[in-house]
Specification:
This protein is mainly α. It is built from five helices and no strands. Helices cover 73% and strands 0% of the residues. The two termini are 21 Å apart.
Length: 115
């Protein structure tokens, strides 16, 4: 991910040993499970709301700037669009790009990210 190239993000991940071999797979799995609940069910489902609460709790243990949250969220918007447009069988329609943006914007609101 591009966000690992941001010094404040990568240094926090390093300090918390989230890049250590014994932790990296758990971090990936936790991220996958939490995001899957949200992406597959939306915020109207209790499991997805609980997953977002868990995500906020995990991140709330650290001093993370709103700019870092916003940048990471923007990568979750732009990276899939760029990848699909480059390698997919067709480029995304504008309405599909807007849908990705709206889903991630809703997630940002659930995470109290200011824009």
């Amino acid at each position: 991910f591009k966000n690992y190239g941001i010094p404040s993000i990568s240094s926090l991940l390093y300090k918390t040993k989230q890049f250590a071999p014994e932790n990296v797979l758990k971090r990936y799995d936790d991220t996958d499970l939490i995001l899957r609940e949200y992406f597959e069910n939306g915020m109207d489902v209790e499991r997805a709301r609980t997953a977002m609460q868990r995500l906020n709790y995990i991140h709330g243990q650290y001093s993370i700037s709103n700019d870092d949250y916003l940048y990471t969220l923007s990568v979750f918007v732009s990276a899939p669009i760029i990848f699909i447009d480059r390698y997919g069988y067709r480029q995304l329609l504008e309405i599909e790009k807007k849908a990705i943006y709206e889903v991630m914007k809703t997630m940002g609101v659930a995470m109290n990210i200011k824009h």
